[in-house]
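Hello forum,

I keep getting stuck at the same step: I have a sequence, I want structure tokens, and every attempt I make locally crashes halfway through. Rather than fight my setup again tonight, could one of you with a working pipeline run this one for me? It's a single chain of 274 residues.
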Amino acid sequence: MQILNSFQFKPINIRTEYLQLKSTAQSLAYGRFLYEYQDQGQHYWLKCQAAGHPQYQLGFQRELDFYQSVVDEHLAEIVLPYAICQFTAVDSAMVADCDCLITPHSQPLFQHSPDDLSFDELIHQLLQILAVLERLHQQGWIHGDLKKEHFVFALGRVKLFDFEHCVNVNQTQQGHLTATPRYMAPELFRHAAKSYASDVYALGIILLEWLTQQRLVAKSYQQWAILHCQSLIIELPARFQCLYGILSAMLQKDPLRRTVDFSVLKKRLILDIV
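Reply #2:
Ran it on my machine without issues. Output:
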């Protein structure tokens, strides 16, 4: 049964011999099945969740609910085309009649070094990135688990995906922590609720790692807490020193001092490079 299909895709046409299971062993243990499908120029990803794993079922259902709530054209512009359907036995390990989310293949936004871009291209891309998160926040949604992998380029636009931790700003609950330590804002380590400010911090970390082409290093949850709450230092290559101001505004340890107004961030980005 087709539940929702926002792009030209018919699951009935899938040839199972072209499905390749891409889930890690850990994901499979939690009932998560991720398939890559390529056939005659078609390239899609199918994500399914088996029953018996309540926490992961809840996250997957949250993502399905988010997609089904996308009725505003402004929000639709920042998400990938998708289909939600019932899919049966695409693999011997698959539980029959799972809900399945299907999205087209897209290019990772941060796969190339910023050094490969002209400065004008870099600023244009940064403005697009800010605009995507701004649009999500304007519609009352907190992504809740931003990572560099969640930004892609498709249909000529920067887009977001993976909304399993996405919550409405009026629904977030203090103490319910499911974020990734690498990108966690300091207040989340103190069990504060996710917020627009914690999303902005996560994006700041993504941009810092991309601009420096260096990943932050910590070996434990406690070390990540110390890094984000106490020892994070913003050091940029000489070419990108003019971006220090906007990163500093996004990475303030105190969420009340962190800039979450995207019009201010975009204005600062433009003014700092003049």
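The helical segments are 25-29, 54-68, 73-76, 119-138, 196-212, 221-231, 244-250, 262-273. If your local run keeps crashing, start a new thread with the error log.
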